[in-house]
C-alpha cells in the first residue's frame, strides 16, 4: 500500500455515524433525524449537510469526547495507509473561541494524536479553522486561538463552511493574525463559489493552499495563475461527487487540473458523510483516470511539500 499524505480532513466530519450515535445514546440526545434507515448520515444538499454536521457535532461536549474522536479517526486513517494527516480543528465546537477552553480541548486532541503516532504509526497536525457562515467577527477569536496555540502541533489556519457567505477579504484580519503567528494558510474556495471565488481568495488572502478549488477549471487564465503560483489544491473528489459539485467521477476536473500543471493533492474531506475512504479515492482515480503508482507517488510528494509541519517531520515521514 502506498503511504498516503492527507491534507484536508475535518475532525468532526470524520466521525463515524456509530461513534456519534454512541455518544448521543450516552447523553440521551435524540439525533435520529440526522440518520437514514441504514444508519448513515442523511442530507440532500450542501446546506443540509452543514446542518446535520453541526447537529452531529453537538454530542461532542468536552475534551474527553474529542480525545476519543481523534483516537478513533486516526486509527481509521492509518488503516487506509495514511502516514501523515492534517486535521481541520474548530474552536467553535470546542468552547466557542474561548482560549482557556480551547487549550483544554487541544491538549486532549494532542494526547490522542501522540497515542496514534505510537500505536498506529500515523502523524497528525492541526489546522485551526474558522467557520465562514458564522461571520467575520467570530473568525477573530478563532484566529486568536490559532495564534496562541501555534507550535509543533498547530501548524495552520483555515476557513471552511459556506463559501457563499461573505467574501474572503472580510476574513483578512483573521488570516493576518494567523500569518503573524507563523501559521500556514488555506481557505475553502471554488467548491461552490465558481472560479471567481478562487480568484477573490488569491487576491485577498495570503494562502499557499486552497481547499477544493476545483471550479477554477472553468477559467483557463485562473488555471494558469494557479499553476504559475504553485498554489496547492486540496482536492476531495469523492466529496465533490457526493455533494453534487460535479455530476460524476469521470467529469471531475482533477486530472485536467493536473494536466494543466496545477499542484493537486487528494483528500477525503468528511469521509463517512461521503461514503469514502482514502483507499476508495485512490481506487476510483485508478479506475476512472488510469492513474498508476507513479502518479500517486508524485501526488504524495506534492502533498508532503505543501504540508504545514516542520522540515524535520517531513524528513522523518518521507
Ligand atoms: N465544505 C465546506 N465546509 C466544510 C466542509 C466542506 O466540504 N466540510 C466541513 N466543513
Ligand atoms: Zn473541507
What structural class do the secondary elements suggest?
alpha/beta
Q: Can you say what the CATH homologous superfamily is?
A: Metal-dependent hydrolases
Q: What share of the residues does DSSP label as strand, in percent?
A: 15-25%
Q: What's the shape?
A: globular
Helix content: 40-55%
* CATH class label: Alpha Beta
CATH architecture: Alpha-Beta Barrel
Integer tally of domains: 1
- What is the number of helical segments per DSSP (H or I, 4+ residues)? 13
Strand and helix order:
EHHHEHEHEHEHEHEHHEHHH
Question: How many strands, what sense, and barrel or not for the largest sheet?
Answer: 8 strands, parallel
Distance between the termini: 15 Å
- The name of the CATH topology is TIM Barrel
Mean pLDDT: 98
Hetero compounds: hypoxanthine, zinc ion
The spatial strand order of the largest sheet comes to 1-2-3-4-5-6-7-8
Radius of gyration: 18 Å
**Count of strand segments:** 8
Poorly predicted sequence stretches spanning 5 or more consecutive residues: none
Task: Please give a structural write-up.
Helices cover 47% and strands 15% of the residues. The protein is an alpha/beta fold and 318 residues long. The protein has one domain: Alpha-Beta Barrel (TIM Barrel), CATH 3.20.20. Helix 3 packs parallel to helix 4 and helix 5 (136-149) runs parallel beside helix 6 (172-180). The chain is globular. The two termini are 15 Å apart. Zinc ion is lined by residues 8, 10, 160, 188, 211, 269. The site of zinc ion has 6 residues, from strand 1.
Amino acid at each position: 500500500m502506498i503511504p498516503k499524505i492527507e491534507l484536508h480532513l475535518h475532525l468532526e466530519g470524520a466521525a463515524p455515524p456509530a461513534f456519534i450515535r454512541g455518544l448521543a445514546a450516552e447523553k440521551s440526545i435524540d439525533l435520529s433525524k440526522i440518520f437514514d434507515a441504514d444508519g448513515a448520515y442523511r442530507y440532500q444538499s450542501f446546506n443540509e449537510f452543514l446542518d446535520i454536521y453541526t447537529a452531529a457535532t453537538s454530542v461532542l461536549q468536552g475534551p474527553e469526547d474529542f480525545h476519543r474522536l481523534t483516537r478513533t479517526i486516526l486509527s481509521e486513517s492509518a488503516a487506509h495507509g495514511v502516514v501523515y494527516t492534517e486535521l481541520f480543528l474548530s474552536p467553535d465546537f470546542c468552547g466557542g473561541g474561548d482560549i482557556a477552553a480551547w487549550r483544554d480541548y487541544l491538549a486532549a486532541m494532542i494526547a490522542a494524536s501522540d497515542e496514534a503516532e505510537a500505536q498506529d504509526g500515523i502523524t497528525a497536525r492541526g489546522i485551526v479553522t474558522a467557520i465562514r457562515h458564522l461571520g467575520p467577527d467570530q473568525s477573530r477569536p478563532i484566529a486568536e486561538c490559532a495564534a496562541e496555540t501555534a507550535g509543533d502541533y498547530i501548524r495552520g489556519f483555515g476557513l471552511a463552511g459556506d463559501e457563499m457567505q461573505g467574501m474572503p477579504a472580510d476574513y483578512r484580519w483573521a488570516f493576518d493574525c494567523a500569518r503573524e503567528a507563523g501559521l500556514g494558510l488555506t481557505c475553502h474556495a471554488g467548491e461552490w463559489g465558481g472560479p471567481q471565488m478562487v480568484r477573490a481568495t488569491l487576491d485577498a488572502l495570503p494562502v499557499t493552499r486552497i481547499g477544493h478549488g476545483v471550479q477554477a477549471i472553468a477559467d483557463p487564465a485562473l488555471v494558469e495563475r494557479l499553476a504559475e503560483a504553485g498554489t496547492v489544491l486540496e482536492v476531495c473528489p469523492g466529496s465533490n461527487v457526493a455533494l453534487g459539485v460535479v455530476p460524476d467521477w469521470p467529469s471531475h476536473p482533477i486530472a485536467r487540473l493536473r494536466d494543466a500543471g496545477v499542484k493537486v493533492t487528494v483528500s477525503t474531506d468528511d469521509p463517512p458523510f461521503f461514503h469514502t475512504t482514502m483507499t476508495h479515492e485512490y481506487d476510483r482515480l485508478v479506475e476512472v483516470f488510469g492513474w498508476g503508482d507513479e502518479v500517486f507517488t508524485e501526488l504524495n510528494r506534492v502533498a508532503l511539500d505543501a504540508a504545514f509541519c516542520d522540515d524535520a517531520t517531513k524528513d522523518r515521514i518521507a
